[in-house]
Design a protein that fits this description.
about 450 residues, alpha/beta
Length: about 450
């Protein structure tokens, strides 16, 4: 597999612009909503290629968060560029809506169904993971005649009204959030088990809690439960396969649809199949996806069974930009690249290399409390004390800055923001992994 990269680590500074750094930052703070920014001194990123991004001063950074887990085939893959340029040169329509026929969404739907778990044969395209989850909620409620949806504490499912209502973090919920048809089950968080169990003494009390939640917080029937196979914003919490076997059975027993949220876990990132739902043989009724599925394009999708899709008949459902040709074509090219270049196998191998390096690093650095995840969706939970597991919140933020100063970009998550998230493009190679590990080791030492 050929990994695209440049030999130069420094490019000329950005050409003159009316926005110098201070003007750009001040204008954003003045005109944007109060949105968070990474780092004490946020980067002004102006260029990207392969595994790397460059700031306005020409500094090159190894991108190990992939635009918040959106870049799977690498930045500006030539096959994606060639596809989009060709469409522009041929004057293909940028927008058609779903009211007309176009071959690009049809081809992508056929490709996606081939990668889907058995029985999921219908597809709807959206602009984001939030919209995909909203559509899944609506379909489940229509198909079951029920309204209650169960989520997990520590979960995250999007930034729209219904998806924020399913978020298990106070920071993602607002006073006006409609939560009347929502309830939460306890999280399958092995490192911080809510039942104070250890893997060798666990009887999956967290799975049984789903049934307890239905019996005590609903009228005994539900519309759906939504679960991420690896909880992304929650800090890459990765439950064992047996958890899903038990939970899907409980959900179906109480009449609900099981929604597998693969917005972050999909597109081969977890290292075995294109969808983790299929790898774990999760008995899902719907699978949602976005982010790496489009390699940065604004596209999401819902896979569902025909019986559930047919429940929407007689009602009008429409998405203005869903299935537009250009983002759909980019997603198709991304899926082709992932398959042709063996990126799923690469995710498994490079992910194992990172995990081995972090576990070895944990012998030297007490900040590392837990290493977890699948493939190239990895979390390193930072703690101040391994016995008390006190969250190392300020230290995690400082650690990210130290890595950035050494030209490596990482993310963070978890309820307290103390979990370092590692999710590079699936094109990362062994040399780049070793660079990542060296930088992390040096930064932990400096802490």
């Amino acid at each position: 597999m050929k990994i695209l990269e440049r030999d130069d680590t420094q490019l000329p500074a950005q050409a003159s612009s009316e926005y110098d750094y201070e003007t750009l930052l001040a204008s954003r703070q003045r005109h944007f909503l109060p949105l968070a920014l990474y780092h004490d001194k946020p980067l002004n990123l102006v260029r990207a290629e392969g595994m790397y991004m460059w700031d306005a001063d020409g500094n090159r950074y190894l991108d190990c968060i992939g635009g918040i887990i959106c870049i799977s085939a690498g930045h500006h893959h030539p096959k994606i560029k060639q596809k989009l340029i060709g469409m522009l040169e041929n004057n293909e329509p940028q927008h058609v809506s779903t009211l007309y026929l176009n071959e690009h969404p049809v081809r992508l739907a056929e490709t996606l169904v081939e990668e889907a778990p058995d029985g999921l044969d219908r597809v709807s395209f959206t602009n984001s993971g939030s919209e995909a989850n909203e559509l899944a909620f609506m379909t489940a409620r229509q198909a079951t005649g029920e309204t209650m949806i169960i989520n997990l504490r520590h979960s995250y499912h999007g930034g729209t009204a219904a998806t924020q209502a399913q978020c298990g973090h106070a920071t993602w919920r607002f006073r006006a959030q409609p939560v009347t048809a929502t309830t939460s089950a306890l999280e399958p968080y092995c490192y911080r088990c809510p039942f104070n169990k250890k893997p060798d003494s666990c009887d999956f009390e967290c799975a049984q809690n789903v049934e307890t939640t239905i019996q005590t917080s609903t009228h005994g029937r539900i519309a759906a439960m939504i679960v991420e196979p690896v909880m992304g914003v929650g800090g890459f919490i990765s439950p064992p396969k047996e958890y899903f076997d038990r939970v899907t059975s409980i959900v179906h027993e109480y009449g609900g649809k099981y929604i597998s949220d693969e917005v972050q876990t999909g597109a081969g990132r977890c290292g075995q199949e294109f969808l983790l739902t299929r790898e774990l043989d999760i008995d899902a009724d719907m699978v949602t996806m976005a982010k790496g599925f489009g390699n940065g394009a604004a596209i999401g999708a819902v896979l569902m069974k025909s019986e559930d899709a047919d429940s929407l008949k007689g009602k009008l459902y429409f998405n203005t930009f869903g299935a537009d040709p250009y983002p759909v074509a980019q997603a198709q090219a991304t899926m082709d690249i992932i398959k042709e270049e063996g990126l799923i196998n690469n995710a498994r191998e490079m992910g194992a290399r990172i995990v081995d390096g972090l576990n070895e690093m944990a012998k030297r650095h007490h900040w590392i409390g837990d290493v977890r995840g699948r493939g190239l969706l990895l979390g390193m939970e930072m703690v101040r004390d391994r016995k008390t597991k006190e969250h190392a919140v300020a230290e995690a933020a400082r650690f990210m800055d130290l890595c950035k100063d050494r030209k490596v970009l990482l993310g963070k998550g978890g309820l307290k923001g103390n979990v370092i998230r590692i999710a590079p493009p699936l094109t990362i190679n062994a040399q780049q992994v070793d660079q990542l590990l060296e930088v992390m080791d040096q930064s932990l030492a400096e802490l």
